[in-house]
Amino acid sequence: MIGTIVHQLTRNMTEEQIKKSGYGAYFIDHTAGVYPTAASGSPWNAASMAVKGDVIADLVEDMAAEQKARVTYDNILRLCDDPDVADVIRYLREREVVHFQRFGEGLRLATERMDQKNVYVINPSFDN
Questions:
Q1: What is the Cα–Cα distance from 13 to 18, expressed in whole angstroms?
Q2: Fewest C-beta atoms under 10 Å: which of 3, 17, 22, 105?
Q3: Long-range CB contacts (< 8 A, 24+ apart) of 29-37?
Q4: Burial 64-73 (b: 16+ CB within 10 A, else e)
Q5: pTM over 0.85
Q6: What is the pLDDT of residue 50?
């Protein structure tokens, strides 16, 4: 969705708008194509998806990802002056909050079914 917003906002930019907006370096490398990067310019890669294969570690990682996305959307809303873009970002932010809550519920359910005596919450079927 973010890529679509970026495409819609940049697809018809004039040369003058590209130069004035600070979009020049991006345009040189990618024209108006959507190339997923962080705001710092670091390209997205699969290394940002941390999967351990442990239900607790993975659910906590999922929760962290949702929270980080929510903060990113909060920061975009602080800087955004386009009401149409802000509406979409608010929707995406709301979705991150719901996802965080659902992962939290999953984490609670998973820990309830594990060895409650353990401080580190292990799966007793693997770690006796």
A1: 6
A2: 22
A3: 32/7, 34/3, 34/4, 34/6, 34/7, 36/3
A4: ebbeebbebb
A5: no
A6: 78
Residue type, 101: Q
Closest C-alpha among 113, 101, 110, 112 to residue 55: 110
| Overall residue count recorded for the chain in this entry | 128
Beta bridge partners of 37: 43
CA-closest candidate to residue 98, choices 67, 54, 76, 72: 67
| Encoded tokens for 4 | 């679509």
Instruction: Kindly give, in sequence order, each residue whose CB lies less than 8 Å from that of residue 124, ignoring residues fewer than 6 positions away.
Output: 114, 115
Q: Which two tokens stand for residue 42?
A: 């670091």
Rounded alpha-carbon distances, angstroms, from residue 68 to 29, 75, 93: 27, 11, 10
Q: Ranked by mean pLDDT, which of 15-24, 49-58, 83-92, 107-116 comes out on top?
A: 83-92
